[in-house]
Specification:
It is built from four helices and three strands; from the N terminus they run H-H-E-H-E-E-H. It has 136 residues and is an alpha+beta fold. Strands 1-2-3 form a three-stranded antiparallel sheet, with helices on one face. The structure holds zinc ion. The site of zinc ion has 6 residues, from loops.
Length: 136
């Protein structure tokens, strides 16, 4: 991870030093886009929703949960499915897996946002300089 960000920093510095031709700029956008696409391919399984951990107190006023120790922890997955909130009780192990998939989903969306951002720059450049992308 640390190695990656160092490489990006050097790359950015190099880019700032020299004035880039549209062709060089497009090439760098395309490199960046490909890098992101490679990262996208490495994101594992994804899941929607969120995980919550709850402790509860029951209806029995004599239960220990009212004095010191609430029941739980209960792990729960919550998501919106077709506009309805759906919940599912999970074991701690399941909650851990789900959290990983949910984190992957966030990462996936972050990468796609960066791809959109990079693609916006590339497509704007191509519209300005159609000769840069003669594939059409
Ligand atoms: Zn209780």
């Amino acid at each position: 991870m640390a190695g990656k960000s160092t490489r990006h920093a050097q790359y950015a510095r190099k880019e700032n030093q020299m004035p880039c031709s549209p062709q060089q700029r497009l090439a760098s956008y395309q490199r960046r886009y490909q890098e992101l696409a490679d990262q996208l391919a490495e994101v594992g399984l994804i899941a929607s929703g969120s995980i919550t951990c709850r402790h509860t107190r029951c209806a029995n006023p004599n239960c220990r949960c009212h004095a010191d120790q609430p029941h739980g922890p209960y792990w729960q997955w919550t998501a919106k499915v077709s506009g309805k909130t759906v919940t599912k009780r999970l074991t701690p192990e399941q909650a851990q897996r789900y959290q990983q998939w949910i984190d992957n989903d966030r990462r996936l969306r972050a990468i796609i946002n960066q791809m959109r951002h990079t693609a916006d720059k590339a497509t704007a450049l191509i519209l300005e300089h159609p000769e840069l992308d003669p594939k059409v």
